Amino acid sequence: MTPEQIQHSAAWLADYRRRGEAAPLLPAELRPTSLAEAFAIQQWLFIELDLPVLGWKAGLPGPDKWVLAPIASVQQGELCLFEQKSEQYSIEPELAFLLSTDLPARAEAYSEAEIKAAIAVTHLALELIIRPYSADAGAEFLDQLAAGLFNQGLYIGPALPSQYFPQDFELVLEYSGQQQKFAAKHPNDDPLLPLYWLVNHLSQQGIGLQQGQWVITGSYAGVLQVPTDALVKLEFGTLGQINTQCSHNAVIS
């Protein structure tokens, strides 16, 4: 793809996201055909929308997958707001790592010890999920990577009392008088592994991480559905709980 095509792809996706709508599939000539092209579109999408990079979502990569996207919105408090209006919203229960220091891009790889030492505190969190493409669009992984891998932003819950990161626990979800229990387990066992990969992968792209940014590394229970405007409680085993209310508010102008 040419730089002009990459920018055109980002502008297409940005137009639909501003309106809070799921997009049809990009025209064939504007769809990414490589990880590098998809990542370039993703970066231009943030420029088109004039969004800050407040953090990153990450997962361990595969042979033909980079699992990463910037986070543009961080929320806390009584309400958890979504851009797209819906009768129910999608959330993912995660841990969010807050960085205490910059990790600038450099030629030498960061060690696991250096990266772990850069974590100021860890919070319970929810990844807020959006659908960049309409359900029948036929979007594939590269299309989703270009659009930000379903990430609208992050809801921050309470801090963990220590830097102990469990592999699994019982997750209890309650709303509208209903209760659901899940055998929650991190997809990579150690929730720090995607963080280690992210820091060094971005560094190779000339991108550093900054003090005050958040990083999430994978859902402990996949995607959970909650109804709009219902009071929601998520109990993360003995780690603590999140109490909030998911509702609609178009936050991108």
What would you note in describing this structure?
With 253 residues, the chain is of the alpha+beta class. Helices cover 22% and strands 36% of the residues. The protein is built from five helices and 13 strands. The chain has helices at residues 3-18, 35-49, 112-117, 141-146, 193-204, and strands at residues 55-62, 65-71, 74-75, 79-82, 88-99, 119-129, 151-159, 168-175, 178-185, 214-216, 224-227, 231-236, 241-248. The strands form two sheets. Strands 1, 2, 3, 5, 6, 7, 10 and 11 form an eight-stranded mixed beta sheet that branches. A five-stranded mixed beta sheet has the order 4-13-12-8-9, with no helix packed on it. Helix 1 crosses helix 2 (35-49). The chain is globular, with a radius of gyration of 18 Å. The two termini are 28 Å apart. The mean pLDDT is 95.
Spell out the blueprint of helices and strands.
Layout (H helix, E strand, L loop, with lengths): L2 H16 L16 H15 L5 E8 L2 E7 L2 E2 L3 E4 L5 E12 L12 H6 L1 E11 L11 H6 L4 E9 L8 E8 L2 E8 L7 H12 L9 E3 L7 E4 L3 E6 L4 E8 L5
Parallel strand pairs: 1-10, 3-7, 4-13
Antiparallel strand pairs: 1-2, 5-6, 5-10, 5-11, 6-7, 8-9, 8-12, 12-13
Helix pairs in contact: 1-2
The dominant shape is globular
Mean pLDDT: 95
**Helix and strand composition category:** alpha+beta
Radius of gyration: 18 Å
Query: Alpha-carbon distance between the termini?
Result: 28 Å
Main sheet attributes: strand count, strand direction, barrel closure: 8 strands, mixed
Low-confidence stretches: none
SS element count, helices: 5
> Fraction of residues in helices?
10-25%
What is the ordering of alpha helices and beta strands?
Answer: HHEEEEEHEHEEEHEEEE
